[in-house]
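Appendix B. Raw example, untouched.
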Amino acid sequence: MASIIEGIGLTKRFGFGDAAVVAIDSVDIHIEERELVMIMGDSGCGKTTLISLLGCILTPDDGEIRIDGEQVDTVNHDLSLIRREKIGFVFQMFHLLPYLTAMENVMVAMDIAKTKAFESENRAIELLSRVGLSDRLHHRPGQLSGGEKQRVSFARALANRPKIIFADEPTANLDSRQSDNLMNLIQELRHEHQTTIAIVTHHEGLKENADRIIQMKDGRIIDA
């Protein structure tokens, strides 16, 4: 199976001179099409920084990124365009807009992609219904539980039909029952939408859901 995304010799430093911290240290990584991988390791090992690089939120100091076999020019490319067309993100703290409804939060992603209003509304309703929130379309984030907010986040991440979704600690704010329900949903969505999913987590109980575990330590991959 072909790799949907690759990082080759990725390095990321924060700070300058003697105070610089190497967060990602010459990492090689590949994730295959329709694969569900979990990136694991102790807090501070570089997990979130790595997916931020692969997801074109951060730019590497060294190394290259390939998406669909094409090298990403992190200097000259419009990285927001790449994110909009090929990548979905689910953040630990949800990052939902508090003054918008669940449906509007999903539609925002499509508005940025200049999807026609009636198409974005229909797709938002479809996705929110699929994640079990057909009765929460017009609720704002403050009216939703943690599990419901996370489901809205996944619906939003799927809005523009991305090649890959990166999820940063998606179960961190959920209890064990909600975590199990969310992982079942993730598996179903992956197969339905043929989407690759990479999850950053420290939750050992989620391992059984993964096709592959990528273990990190001190900014490096020590087992994949």
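End of appendix B.
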